[in-house]
Design the sequence.
């Protein structure tokens, strides 16, 4: 029997013992564990799972089942198992999010937006850079007069608009996939949102807006498209995924292929035009109307609020509606005071990205993410910065909003206005009203927004890190402390599971090194996982290969989800029993998971033996 056949047998056995493929929502793996998100954890046969060949331990955290296989082996088993249960290509972050049942609705919405946009950001970034380039070149007479240069610029302009023309469809596709439905059905519903037979959403409020009206059981339905409706597309992705999973579960196999997708698409379409779409538009109108009311009635405070909150509106995708108001302003007054506010709001997010990059400059991944996101923002596209960085880590988003708000006050007092709309940041200077030192004030306003956001991001970031770094850190047990490379277990010593320390324990009493939440306790009681406030995961492993003792010689004093403080007792090792059985009693403590932009530093000579950067 070769390895693939062996792993397939293991996969089939695991599937049976977790309640079947229909009970599996997602699959991923980390360095040592196969992670399976389940619909119903009560169906798991824990004891039988522990007896499956090659399994070293089993535990459940929330709706997530974690099966310990060990470094290297888990990768091979995951490849076979994920294919067997038809859950390939799920990331560890996908599984974590599906398993996180404790988030409130707002947190889930924000997390969903961020996750859905992860795969979309490259397309937005490419479009942003092309849009900025073509916007600048298009104003040069040389480009307009030279046929070749004009052709190149025209093609670049076409390439820059593609993603934005179909963004709701892409979001619906990604969202459906994110929530466990068949992504192609999300794409179909997304296409319906943008169908050419519908009235264009951007024409709302204009003389040409005259949508078809359907009468559905007395309900008047306006057939209007959902251009720019990101939140609506996200909601529809969830609707499509939910319906798809429901119909696949309840419809008999013999007609499932025929009826499940048909019912999913049709009912989703009905819900789009009767409930989800109208609710999303009401939400959009209330936010947009509130912002405009502030600028008209609250003076400098209103300008600050508008510039401070406008990028939150960008997150919803309904900011395009403001364009109709801007065009009306220009038609009525000849100038547009909203455009500079939108521009400084955007540049505040750019400053926040720079601040976050400065905080984590040593992290290559952070630089690779922040630099192009910042450049994109200079050309008027903030989505990569918002969804890729600021929203994901929250405090940069707040700092960026505050930077925009301060700059908004400057816009108010300098009477800064534009003569057009539709372009912001660096290209936006081309439409600034030059009167009242308009060009100079435009630059100053943006420097204010950029600088304030940059500084506040660093301050907030240091406050967050300081809170964590100032935690009392203690060793998990008394004894001789050494670097992890001196561990008697080669896997731990290689640091393949993470940085850490090893202690030759004197008394076998294991305590919490810091304030944390107990994330899991191995069934064999020989190891415990803690989740720190900054999201890092810490594993305390008592003894080498002591999983084979099946809990003999170990006693635990906490439960999963308990919040522990430094020196709180976690585990007691019966050193005499463990040694008598022939096992090493070294206590290994390692950081098994770290947030993307966080690194850990170990100092075995210092009481505060680890710190974060």
Sequence:
């Amino acid at each position: 029997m070769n390895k693939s056949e062996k792993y397939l047998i293991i996969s089939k056995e695991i599937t049976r013992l977790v309640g079947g493929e229909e009970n599996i929502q997602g699959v991923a793996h980390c360095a040592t564990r196969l992670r399976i998100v389940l619909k119903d954890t009560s169906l798991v046969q824990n004891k039988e799972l522990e007896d499956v060949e090659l399994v070293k331990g089993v535990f459940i955290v929330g709706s997530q089942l974690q099966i310990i296989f060990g470094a290297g082996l888990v990768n091979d088993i995951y490849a076979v198992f994920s294919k067997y249960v038809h859950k390939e290509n799920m990331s560890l972050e996908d599984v974590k999010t599906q398993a996180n049942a404790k988030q409130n609705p707002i947190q889930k919405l924000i997390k969903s937006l961020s996750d859905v946009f992860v795969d979309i950001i490259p397309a937005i970034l490419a479009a942003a850079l092309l849009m900025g380039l073509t916007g600048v070149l298009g104003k040069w007479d040389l480009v307009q007069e030279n046929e070749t240069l004009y052709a190149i610029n025209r093609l670049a302009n076409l390439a820059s608009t593609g993603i934005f023309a179909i963004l709701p469809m892409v979001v619906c596709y990604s969202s459906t996939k994110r929530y466990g439905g068949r992504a192609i059905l999300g794409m179909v519903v997304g296409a319906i949102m943008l169908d050419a037979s519908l009235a264009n959403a951007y024409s709302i409020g204009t003389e040409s807006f005259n949508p078809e009206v359907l009468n559905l059981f007395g309900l008047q339905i306006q057939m209007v498209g959902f251009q720019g409706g990101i939140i609506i597309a996200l909601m529809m992705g969830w609707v499509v995924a939910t319906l798809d999973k429901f119909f696949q579960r309840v419809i008999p196999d013999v007609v499932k292929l025929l009826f499940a997708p048909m019912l999913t698409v049709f009912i989703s379409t009905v819900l789009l035009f009767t409930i989800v779409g109208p609710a999303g538009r009401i939400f959009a109108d209330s936010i947009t109307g509130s912002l405009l009311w502030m600028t008209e009635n609250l003076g400098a405070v209103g300008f600050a609020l508008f510039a401070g909150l406008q990028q939150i509106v960008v997150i919803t995708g309904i900011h395009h509606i403001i364009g109709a108001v801007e065009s009306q302003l220009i038609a009525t007054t000849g100038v547009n005071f909203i455009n500079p506010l939108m521009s400084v709001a955007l540049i505040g997010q750019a400053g926040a990205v720079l601040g976050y990059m400065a905080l984590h400059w040593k992290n290559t991944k952070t630089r690779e993410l922040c630099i192009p996101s910042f450049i994109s923002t200079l050309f008027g596209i903030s989505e990569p910065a918002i969804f890729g960085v600021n929203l994901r880590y929250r405090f940069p988003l707040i700092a960026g909003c505050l930077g925009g708000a301060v700059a908004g006050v400057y816009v108010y007092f300098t009477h800064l206005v534009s003569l057009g709309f539709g372009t912001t940041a660096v290209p936006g200077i081309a439409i600034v009203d030059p009167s009242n030192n308009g060009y100079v004030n435009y630059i100053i306003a943006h420097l204010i927004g950029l600088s304030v956001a940059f500084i506040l991001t660093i301050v907030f970031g240091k406050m967050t890190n300081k809170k964590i770094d100032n935690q009392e850190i203690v060793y998990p047990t008394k004894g001789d402390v050494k670097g992890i490379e001196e561990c008697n277990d080669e896997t731990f010593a290689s640091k393949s599971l993470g940085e850490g320390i090893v202690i030759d324990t004197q008394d076998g009493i294991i305590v919490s090194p810091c304030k944390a939440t107990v994330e899991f306790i191995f069934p064999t009681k020989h190891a415990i996982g803690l989740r720190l406030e900054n999201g890092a995961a810490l594993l305390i492993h008592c003894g080498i290969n002591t999983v084979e003792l099946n809990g003999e010689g170990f006693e635990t004093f906490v439960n999963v989800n308990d919040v522990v403080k430094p020196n709180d007792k976690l585990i007691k090792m019966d050193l005499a029993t463990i040694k008598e059985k022939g096992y090493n009693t070294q206590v290994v403590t390692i950081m098994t998971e770290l947030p993307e932009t966080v690194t850990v530093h170990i100092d075995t000579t210092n009481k505060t033996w680890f710190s974060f950067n």
